[in-house]
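User: Modeling request: complex.
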Amino acid sequence: MSAALPGVALKRAVSRRKSIIMVIAKVWQLVRRPEGEPTVEDFLCVEEELPACSEGDVLVEAVALSIDPYMRYKARQIPLNTPMFGSQVAKVVESKNPELPVGTHLVHYEGWRTYTVLTSQHLKDKEHFGVMCLPEMGDLPKSLGIGILGMPGNTAYFGFLDICKPKAGDVVLVNGAAGAVGSAVVQIAKLKGCRVIAFAGSDEKVAWVKELGADHAFNYKTMNIGEALSKVAPKGVNIYFDNVGGKFTAQALPHMADYGVVSLCGAISTYNEEVDIGVPSLRSPFNEGTVIWKQLHIEGFLVFRWKARWMEGLKQLREWIEQGKLKYKETVFQGFEKMPSAFIGLFHGENTGKTVVVP
Amino acid sequence: MSAALPGVALKRAVSRRKSIIMVIAKVWQLVRRPEGEPTVEDFLCVEEELPACSEGDVLVEAVALSIDPYMRYKARQIPLNTPMFGSQVAKVVESKNPELPVGTHLVHYEGWRTYTVLTSQHLKDKEHFGVMCLPEMGDLPKSLGIGILGMPGNTAYFGFLDICKPKAGDVVLVNGAAGAVGSAVVQIAKLKGCRVIAFAGSDEKVAWVKELGADHAFNYKTMNIGEALSKVAPKGVNIYFDNVGGKFTAQALPHMADYGVVSLCGAISTYNEEVDIGVPSLRSPFNEGTVIWKQLHIEGFLVFRWKARWMEGLKQLREWIEQGKLKYKETVFQGFEKMPSAFIGLFHGENTGKTVVVP
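Assistant: Request completed. Predicted assembly structure:
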């Protein structure tokens, strides 16, 4: 293993001779805990010589790497000097496993790396972050397997439908509405007959969110959230799908209707704060008086609670895509060296839809 | 209507002559919005001459007046110079309503007052704060109709069973555990086979809560909440019935188990803060990262959501009392002039069990 400068594109060192396959993977390690907003220096790109495949193993090559807000939490949790946590769509390039022939596409969670040997142990993993075959997706881009036909798609599908139990006519508030999850929630809410109020962080994003069907869409950077909600939801918000948290939620909470539901999917506006999970703090927007008197139901979730129903969600999402009822965007960064900057860009709203790095 | 000094016991001015019944009620009005902790000067005791009963009306006399933490919120909401909001057990002393003969006991929400004319309009009221007949309660004290066999009892019954859906073996955390609601939750949780961790505000209260069956009970003033929970709930708390909020909850939240439920009944520790319902704030203990990663379900409630099932709760509670499975205490203040001081005492934990004023 040897260090390499970030940003330097290393050529693939896959040498295929009869008896020796020597593969050098590029791997982004987390080498420092981010303080506040992550910086490029929190990561280091190293080379890693992979072992040869044993019986049952496959060697996979990253096709599309996922960049997600939750990784900010992982950067607090994973050991330093180990691969940064993340998922990717990968293709089997060598197989000693008859069930996964060369050419098979998978989603795995082995982190920010170009090549990976997935051992029979990895493949048996039934835990949250196992290895999954890509769902059947016809001519759709394989990268959707980490987007609308993967974790973010199911996050929108289950996190909205199962937690919020929307009814036709419900007033639904979605923030981060031009993001990978938010843009799907906007459309699923419309498919269920809800009235959708969406917030995003630029006029271009707002325009797209309106194209997706939002009844009202606002740029939270130029529009007062409370005033906007007073105007378009005078009877209150029944369902609030929250990707942003913090000050946004503090402004939105007083506009909830009685018995309103908050599906707490993410809180990206707070991820760079120093308050960590499990540390006592008094900085959240869920004012207790408001929660009690409005009888609100607030629920946090991780999408893997629905792992047993994973394919149900993906099947429905694909059907909606094929019927033209569900649209998506990807913000694609070319080059594995872009992983840290693509990640940092999330905190500046640089993405529309799902952020993907193609190595 | 004439002002009277608080604390001065006015003699009853009920004069019963054949054709004229002239009744002077004493009434505590809210005359100033409390800033921080309420003071006696926020209230003023006045006399009010009641109208004669018309057809369908009854005149009732307060038997036991309720003192509850939620009244601190009402003191932000009701108009100034009107009777302070509250419930009481009252006895019909004059009746022009054949369904409510003299001697009938009722619970009504007409506020801090000694006498009240309940009109046919009041009696028809199907809203949250209507008039209810006392449930059948045998030889039990009538004051229980505003305690364990009334609103606080049903708050514990439904707020715990319906929101938390306890299973045998669940680890249940209750604070304010020597209060009217908390002491009932401790016992209902034990009846359902849960392991109960209780916190109260004095060693005497802790001793009582242990008598009620709590597996662990602590004085939060002398015991670090987080350390106590680490010790007695190393696998986390499944159900947290919260009467206290604020710093207590900030300490407790990191000790929730995955998928834990927080039944947000009250937040007495925060009621004197300046942050009002519906005003954006960032001072709550429900850290978003913790809520998401532990997949917590937080739900605020007002007990009147279960009004349709009101008698179901009271019937079960009475049965448990008669079977010796449910114990209660009352802290009784003698004298209507004590209303404000009894109320203020709540914020100092002066009560054990339900606070009642007997005029």
